[in-house]
Amino acid sequence: MDPELLLSEYLGSEYIVFDPELIIKIGEKHPELDLFLKQKQVSTWAFITAYNPKSKLLSPEENRLRNQNLEKEIARFEFKKGVGRKGNWSEESYLVLGGSLDFVLNLGRKFDQNAFVYGEIDSEAKLIFCNSGFAH
């Protein structure tokens, strides 16, 4: 996929958490999420999926299996289910509470993801590219 198109897709997406109900957008601060993190006594979060590695479309069954494996990897953290969505496109995802940037970066690489969304309390949500670790 063209890198500029890929970036546009990520930046134009909403990252939705089901419980608590949150909508995360890259480049924005999220006071409700900050409050939730403080209640959970963590300072970092990540929004990640194992769906469609390197933007290669997989079957729903393959994607569900990949996310089940991702869930095993994040089991030591508290996490919440959600979905990354743009228009009619969506991917089941997880909000992971308290993981370090290095941990999530390695996880993204393990599951062949292009990028994930990462943040800290009182900071804007950032798009982190797995191949370079570059933040947008």
UniProtKB/TrEMBL annotation:
Pfam name, any one: DUF3293
InterPro entries named among the record's database cross-references: DUF3293
**Which protein is depicted?**
DUF3293 domain-containing protein
Originating species = Leptospira sarikeiensis
